[in-house]
Structures are given as C-alpha cells and as structure tokens.
Specification:
binds flavin mononucleotide; 5 helices; globular; Alpha-Beta Plaits
Length: 134
C-alpha cells in the first residue's frame, strides 16, 4: 500500500461548490478503489492524505495533479505503508474557518492522525496554509 500526503492551493476554477463536488467524486471513486484518507480545505488551500493499493493511489494522484481546480501541489510524504490508518473514510472532508479550526473541526481526526504519525504535517499546514495562498 502507498500513502501520499500533499498540499495545494485552490485556483479560480474551483468555483462555488467546487469542494463539495470534489468530495462527492472522491467518495464514489475512492470507495470503489479502496482508497482512504481525508481532505482538509482551509478556504484557500488543500491538504490531503491518500492511502490505498499502489496502482489505485498512482492513478488517482495522477488525475489529481492534472486537476485545474488547484495548483502548487507539494508532496509532503510518499511512502509504503502496511495498512491504512483511515479505514472508515473514503475521503473525509474537513473544512476550516481558520488555523484554529484544529480544536473544533478536527477533533475527531486527531487520534487517528496522531497514530498515523501525520500530526506534524497537519499542524504545519494549519500554521502555513493561509499564508501560502496569500
Ligand atoms: C484537492 C483535490 C483532491 C482530490 N481528491 C480526489 C480523490 O481523493 N479521489 C478522486 O477520485 N478524485 C479526487 N479529486 C478529483 C480528481 O482530480 C479528478 O477530477 C477525479 O478523480 C475524476 O474522476 P471521474 O473521472 O470519476 O470524474 C481531487 C481533486 C482535487 C482538486
């Protein structure tokens, strides 16, 4: 299994309701392909953890990289994993009002994120996400 973590910045193509569309597509495709993970949307930037079978992760990530609704894709981690940490989430969506959304909106996520060793990446994103898009 492969795990990819990346951040990116939205483009005007995202449009209103764009994030909702992405989540709908993701839940449909990811369920079928046994992909798991979550997507944080800060209002300007994305942070996504994508886990699953190597081929499926590669194919979907290739599509994601070509998607005009975001840019500046920065891979933060790309590694082999033994099992997914997010079995219940075909693509869990987390919207943030601001950096302090961690406590309120990400509460349910904190434990699995900590167990998966992803916490530093999420915290870094929350601290720099809005600055990056400015
Ligand atoms: C930030 C971001 C995250 C995305 N995450 C996923 C994802 O987890 N799974 C997925 O299938 N598509 C995801 N997409 C959408 C893909 O880029 C692409 O539009 C989609 O896979 C095409 O699916 P379709 O051929 O079923 O329409 C994401 C797009 C963006 C901008």
């Amino acid at each position: 299994m492969r795990q990819i973590i990346y951040s990116s910045v939205q483009t005007p193509e995202l449009g209103e309701g764009g994030v909702f569309e992405i989540i709908q597509t993701s839940v449909r495709n990811n369920t079928a392909k046994e992909l798991r993970g979550f997507l944080i949307y800060s209002g300007q930037s994305f942070f996504q953890v994508l886990e699953g079978p190597d081929d499926a992760v590669s194919a979907v990530f290739e599509a994601i990289c070509k998607d005009p609704r975001h840019m500046n894709i920065e891979v933060l981690r790309d590694q082999t994993i033994q099992q997914t940490h997010f079995e219940r989430w075909a693509m869990q969506r987390i919207a943030l009002q601001g950096g302090d959304g961690w406590a309120a909106s990400l509460g349910a996520l904190e434990e699995p994120v900590r167990e998966a060793g992803i916490l530093p990446f999420v915290e870094e994103f929350l601290e720099s996400g809005s600055a990056k898009a400015a």
